[in-house]
Amino acid sequence: MSEPQRVSQPVSQPVSQPVSEADPRDPLLALRDLHVTYSTGDGPLPAVRGVDLTVERGQIVGVAGESGCGKSTLASTVLRLQPPSATVSGQVLFNGDDVMTMRWGALRAVRWAGASIVFQGALHSLNPVHRIGAQIAEPLKVHHASLSAQTVNLRIEELLEQVGLDPARSRSYPHQLSGGQKQRVMIAMALACDPQLVVADEPTTALDVMVQAQVLGVLSDLVREREVGMLMISHDLSVLADLCDRITVMYAGRVVEEGPAAQVFSDSLHPYTGALSAAFPRVGDPAARFAPAGLPGDPPDPRNLTSGCSFAPRCPRAAEVCLPAEPELASYDGDRAAACFRIDRPLAKPGASAQPGPSDEVAAS
Amino acid sequence: MSAELSTHGLRVQFTTKSGQVAKALDGADLVLRAGEVVALVGESGSGKTTLARALVGLAPPAGGEVRWDGKPMDRSGKGLKALRRHVQLVLQDPSGALNPRHTVYDAVAEGLRVHKLVGDSGKTETELVADALSAAGLRPPEALFLRYPHELSGGQRQRVLIAGALALQPQLLIADEPVSSLDASIRGEILALLLRLREELGLGVLVVTHDLGLAWNIADRIAVMYLGRVVEAGPTEEVLTSPKHPYTQALLSVIPEIERLEPVVLQGEIPDPTRIPSGCRFHPRCPALRSGEAAAVAEACRGTALPILPADPEGHRCACHLVASREEDPHESASRTAP
Prior knowledge:
The structure holds two protein chains of two kinds. By secondary structure, chain A is of the alpha/beta class. Chain A contains ten helices and twelve strands. The radius of gyration of chain A is 21 Å and the shape is globular. Chain B has helices at 48-55, 77-86, 94-97, 104-114, 125-135, 154-166, 184-201, 212-218, 236-241, 246-253, 287-291, 298-303, 321-328, 330-335; strands at residues 4-15, 21-33, 37-41, 63-68, 71-72, 87-90, 172-176, 204-209, 221-226, 229-235, 317-318. In chain B, the strands form two sheets. Chain B has a seven-stranded mixed sheet, with helices on both faces. By secondary structure, chain B is α/β, with parallel strands linked by helices.
């Protein structure tokens, strides 16, 4: 407890490297050993601690975890939107170029036009005194200054139709729209400049089931039709399992499990993933009747991490082996990875895994 | 204990700025008894929160009535105070419902002071507050007495709100979206707490939610609301495994991870309560009407209003012309394909 935990080395912004040409073989988005540490009055707060993650074109990757596990920090770091108090090390490669070391002009081109974010809490992210058409037009005007007013209007109508809204809605103010409609406007905005990557931070939290189904339908159609990549962040593993190709589960700033969405949800390796998926019962499952599943305790304070596995204090499977050191992410059969000492399954043979993302280091237990 | 709270044809209206009348509740029947957990589900705008508020006298009815222990609700200040001693409302959004300048102790003790309950049982106020906090699963309670809401996690705040309600030793608890703002892991804890309170204290709980998984988790009975009315109600197992109303079927089909059902995503949202559609209020969005499945009763769906679904503590009931026509004519119901 008293021993300070390994904190990511605060790296001052590295000198800008000459960036290579976009290579179609590069993944659309690749996070490499990403660390994000906030400096607070009570000392450094490591929010993200060594995350590797890959999003390919036309792929939806989900990031799951409780509040405080670092998932929203991850989302904002992708577009270098982290607050000034954050120190970042590692790489955020967008089409092979490191967003963290990019020059300001290149970064501006990436934001909106290359990658865009649908922020959490759409209900408060729109400017209440502007018509929604004008708000959707804003990124268009910034990135394509030469467009005529008429072209911009046509584009706004097209975008609104794409997300299932009446084009006449462009004259409405945010307060005239319902929650689901506002969320659609946020998605239309994110699509305005035809980005290759959309980061969606809790896009359906606070929406009810029917509207959630509508919004998720809009998002998945867009990904399939336009080959964009999507990074979707949510605490609801069942939503991610429904929509994503792969899921990354985070706990206390680290990846604890990664793999194909259906397996991660229904046949988890890590006990934390198991607890998250049990929290959303399957309607009709007799085992879930009068047996709500919870996970006692709270996530650890990132400022006071213990030396062992950070999940051990809440883990139903914790044993002595979990206490001395934090487990590393290890590969398992079926293109999966998990960081836990207590998994009774054979590790994948070295070299068998094709997944480039997670570290292939094998946990020595 | 025979505590029973029920509504009969309850109507609640709001007048908008432009003078239109929004019918938030348009004939809702519901019954809640001690010792049972009832889930009230529906989309935003279905009137479920209004119904919860009406049950504790916070929304004056424009028609119909609320009955407590078989007698019409006494709406005088004194009568409502007496009612709320036994029926407690736990508000949505634990962060907003707690006064940021009151400590946990004050938040829980407030009800005791208002109802002057200290001394009745021979226990001191401190003891009663401590009891309520531990009943809500906050242990040791003394450690939380002097904490402020901002020092608590979301789950702890929700528990403090529940403790504030429990301090009065109510017979019924009405919880409006008790877990919608909480993390997946804490959600299960709070639901388990509600079940435990039913076991240990014989509490009746009405859970207002849009989450059918939650209803499956804890509810004995479920009532599905649409545009100010209950459209289907019955035992949870029956309603959720063999739903009758096309609206309930659609709600169930869009839950992620239900592979056995073809998702029926309804278009649009609940209509404006100032303009309730004629006939069946669900007909403009009804997938059965759209697909032609309900062609035989289409005229009734568009033109004939359905009677209010009476609150029935046992049976499985549904307000739908199509279902009614099938139940009258078993031959037709046998010939149709299973959903």
